[in-house]
């Protein structure tokens, strides 16, 4: 992974430039005048500092949000269903659906990355979610310009999904195949 000057992360083996902002990372890089360390700067006495916490030291936060079911099942974020591409550039490919919200787009950072279809928005074209408490799946439009269709009807707000529903994004048609449902659901003891 590589980071551009604006903080976007991307796979430099797949992209020579940042796919988010189009900045060429190989030319025009900022170079410092010298490699020496700047001298220490005195802080004025009037500058206030945040008071330290009383009690136990703060826990280290590695910045990764963990799904509640992944924590309950020993660190594994279990599969709860699949999308299978039945028409479009990725025909024949399957995409795993995990518990809670799954963002769909072309970018490799998406939970469901449909990279082959250029007519799907890079990020957040749609969202499929699995609610483990209600044992229910739903499909909602994302915040992109592109439309989402469920069984040939435009999705304007969250819609409940049932087995073998057809979802259309860009030039791709996907078949929804649930794993969790009436016959099975993940629980703490499984």
Automatic annotation (TrEMBL):
Gene3D superfamilies: 2.60.200.20. InterPro entries: FHA_dom, SMAD_FHA_dom_sf, YscD_cytoplasmic_dom. Residues 102-155 form the FHA domain. Transmembrane segments: none annotated. This is FHA domain-containing protein. It comes from Thiorhodovibrio frisius.
């Amino acid at each position: 992974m590589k980071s551009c000057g604006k903080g976007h992360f991307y796979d430099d083996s797949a992209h020579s430039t940042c796919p988010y902002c189009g900045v060429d990372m190989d030319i025009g890089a900022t170079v410092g005048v010298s490699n020496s360390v700047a001298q220490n700067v005195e802080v004025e006495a009037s500058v206030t500092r945040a008071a330290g916490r009383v009690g136990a030291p703060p826990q280290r936060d590695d910045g990764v949000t963990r799904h509640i079911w992944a924590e309950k099942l020993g660190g594994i974020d279990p599969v709860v269903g699949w999308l299978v591409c039945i028409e479009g550039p990725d025909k024949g490919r399957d995409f795993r659906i995990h518990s809670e919200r799954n963002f769909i787009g072309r970018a490799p950072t998406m939970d469901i990355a449909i990279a082959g279809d250029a007519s799907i928005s890079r990020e957040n074209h749609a969202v499929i979610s699995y609610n483990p408490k209600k044992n229910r799946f739903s499909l909602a439009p994302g915040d992109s310009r592109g439309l989402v269709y469920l069984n040939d009807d435009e999705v304007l707000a969250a819609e409940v999904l049932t087995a073998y529903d057809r979802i259309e994004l860009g030039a791709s048609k996907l078949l929804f195949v649930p794993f969790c449902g009436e016959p099975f659901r993940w629980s703490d003891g499984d």
